[in-house]
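Design request, tokens follow.
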């Protein structure tokens, strides 16, 4: 059962990593490649509500996962550093895309998704730092 839990933890990390990477690549592509009037920006999904619920859902799962980390203190601290680094990088990248957004003609739903993603990532980064210091 222990190996199953460890495998499930790292599969969750891989899933979240791939989701955040694709989210950032879409916004980076929009920032770099959409510079001509005839080019269309890439969108995350067709529905603002669906994307927002997905971001909130992933955030809630990661929040409760990091709140109830299992294992020894060294393992908890390692996981807190890895998850904290992931969410800090994502928060900084989303914040960068949000600030660069005002020079481009994106719709307001993309800006709201970026803002929501940035806020959730900052909250999860703070939680990871707090978990790191609790597990000493």
């Amino acid at each position: 059962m222990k190996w199953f839990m460890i495998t499930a933890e790292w599969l969750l990390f891989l899933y979240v990593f791939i989701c955040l990477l694709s989210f950032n690549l879409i916004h980076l592509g929009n920032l770099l490649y959409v510079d001509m009037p005839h080019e269309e920006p890439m969108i995350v999904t067709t529905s603002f509500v669906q994307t927002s619920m997905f971001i909130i859902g992933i955030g809630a799962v990661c929040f409760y996962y990091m709140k109830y980390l299992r294992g020894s203190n060294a393992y908890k601290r390692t996981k807190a550093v890895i998850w904290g680094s992931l969410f800090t990088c994502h928060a900084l990248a989303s914040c960068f895309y949000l600030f660069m957004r005002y020079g481009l003609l994106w719709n307001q739903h993309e800006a709201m998704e970026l803002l929501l993603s940035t806020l959730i990532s900052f909250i999860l980064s703070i939680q990871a730092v707090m978990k790191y210091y609790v597990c000493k």
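Comment from the thread starter after seeing the answer: thanks! The radius of gyration is 17 Å.
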